[in-house]
Amino acid sequence: MAGPENDSTSLRIDTSRPHPARMYDWFLGGKDNYPVDEAMGRQMLAVEPGVPVMAKVNRAFMHRATSWLAGQGIRQFLDIGTGIPTEPNLHQVAQRTAPTTRVVYCDHDPIVLAHAAALLKGTPEGAVDYVQADARDVDAILEQAGRTLDFTQPVGLSLIALLHFVSDEDGAYALVDRLVSVLAPGSYLTISHLTADFHPEEARKVDEMYKANALTLAPRTRERFAAFFEGLDIVEPGIVAGEAWHPELGAPVPGQDDIVSAGYVAVARKG
Question: Which domains does the chain have, with CATH numbers?
Fold first, then answer.
């Protein structure tokens, strides 16, 4: 499928302040970031040296969850908050199992749009498309994604490391409810989300850094994270730290003292 046009208006990238997607890229060893992103990234490392490992744990969870969903027969995915492409991407993982899988990526960051061509390299049998939209503009996302996805059939909705950048006041729960409401029975919701439960002092300092740079950060407790899945059936091993999500084992792997990630993850099915 043809990707979005890279016009000069849509590609205005603000390099005057750090951006979470570009910092995430830096933590993963990518090159699509700027000095301002590296500077804040290094400040975060001074507080919590394990941040790069946390980023990799989150990425690995996305890979496992996508592979598991493909194994359950999911052949359509909507990934909102895509971030800067890092291979393997979600569509590559899913299309390994089923080449006919259809995937729509969505992000609002112009630097992601600049790399949309890399996101769109899928199998000839499947389909991959990209939507340039704010995560809170659910109607626009659904309208454009509907050109590639059939919402009368099950969809894997992926919200990886997105919702902790959307405050309650900005409608985090409402946007999830709206998205889930249009999904067909048999669809799945996958979320990874920052929490302060595991490393409270470090999380407090990182939160202060974000506020100092006028960036939104909304880490949530396990209870508040669970609220995103209201009315859905959470699959085993339930709500766990990222490295503990191994449905093939049916139970969390590490103990509480062994957790290195900074977030909860879960996958839930719509009945």
Answer: 20-269 (3.40.50.150)
